[in-house]
Amino acid sequence: MEIINVVPHGYCAGVIRAIKTAQKTAKENPGRKITMLGMIVHNEFVVRECERLGIGFVENPKKTREELLDEIDEGIVIFTAHGISDKVREKACAKGLSIVDASCPDVIRTHTLVRSHVENGDVLYIGKKNHPESEGTVSLSPRIHLITKAEDLEGLDGLENVLITCQTTLSLRDTRGIINACLEKYPKAAVAEEICAATRMRQEAVMNLTDTDCLIVVGDPRSNNSNQLKRIAFDAGIKEAFLIGSVLDLKEEMVKNKNRIAVTSGSSTPNSLTNQVIDFLKQYAIDGIWQLPSEALVRLL
Asked: Active-site residue 204, yes or no?
């Protein structure tokens, strides 16, 4: 059994920045109430680490960031890596909250792009419905229209000076298909594909895998970029792919009798979690003994 460590994988620069921002805020404000507006990134282990530092969270997939803000009345509010709308920022200021912005620079760049464009045109924004990044971007202007699939273009008539852009963590393959559909309806539209470099490189690394029997993706089930890696594996011809949160989620039947097993992770997954999976599988390949570590030994470094 050969275990392939797919590179690159794990934290991207935006996630590292968000985590360091949260750690710095907790260190510099001992005893003060600190609340994250949503999950800092979509990974339960990172959330647990922030909670250990004394940072609280308000999260509800059925509520917008603006609605969640109603649950924070004092102290410091940290905006997550997914970005935030102007309306939410203004509401936080009106409530007298101290603001710490951990938005990913790539998302901020997208916000700058669409803000500039809506002064003289419309934006077709390709993204996932109810995803915090899409929510924050689309909320910037009524001239930004969320496109989750080609059918969403129906009824969007009369748009002017159209710009097509997208959520930073989408699949390259899926995005290209929807962009083509947008261009069919608006052939003169400009295209600014905003999939971030980290997401792109991780997806391309999976696409380029050959002679692989199985792909293990280490990532939170709520992580869009982790789920995309699993989907891309099937598109790349890999017969089996599994998304697991940590080594504790591995099952022997996932890898038994496989010759080549590749391991990767989403950009919000700590490298320590991925390394534990790789180390366990390598040891299993040597001695054939399946004995997962106890939960207490699964560490976040």
From this structure: no
